[in-house]
Amino acid sequence: MNFWQEQRVVVTGGAGFLGSFVVDGLKARGCTTIFTPRSRDCDLRDRTAIARLFKDARPTLVLHLAAVVGGIGANREHPGKFFYENAIMGIELVEQARQFRLPKLVVVGTICAYPKFTPVPFTEENLWNGYPEETNAPYGIAKKAILVQCQAYRQEYGLNAVYLLPVNLYGPHDNFDPQSSHVIPALIKKCVDAREQGAKYIECWGSGTPTREFLYVEDAAEGILLAAERYDKPDPVNLGSGVEISIRDLVTLIAKLTRFTGEIRWDPSKPDGQPRRCLDVQKSIHELGFRATTGFEEGLRATIRWYENTLKKG
Q: Which residues are catalytic?
């Protein structure tokens, strides 16, 4: 607790999906000095804005969560935007952290940085053994470049920057916009909407055969805070649950939990994305003492409940 009471913490993306849970976790640990810059007030693509943030907040710790993200459709539609904005935010932030002589920086990367055909389970040592899956490669490479920068700055300047690789997140307050959402909120919305409208079927992208691993957002926030407390090494660390599920089984489970009883149709003309995703989580266990504690069905129920309650409120 003393560690957190003494910290001045900047959380980029602190008002977002993951960030809001990280901020709650900081408060629960006794941290009282927390800055959550909003994009309208601090454009993280602008080095002068970041320099001003460091000067005003005088942070002892920065948690960099801000990112431009989306599902397969959004990645295909905006590859340039996803590359530039994610790369420039990270590059400028790390550079300003160096100039400010920030005591510690935690950067949250992405599982999309892994090569398309990484052996399962993904170990951190396999991060550079191939090119990412094409639909999200610009995003994944932009985020992976920040890992290189963190390691280079540690080597040359002594910047204590650590880098985390979380798997796909889900939970309450997720993005349910069908134009940009990830697979779980997209499927929950499809099933709930179809149930409410009395639709006889829903349509899902691809073949249903790819697999994914998911981490409940509250668990992810805990992993990030543990890394801030306990980890000071250059090597990246996976954050995940270690549980793999096929998209076909995921759709079936979400349909059951949302009480949608209609037909599930697959559109094989749409892309599947990466064939498999499942992380080796041994390093996070040994280095951070982190284990996911929320069961997958339990987390899905909480997410569906939040979405349905939000719909009722209008």
A: 139
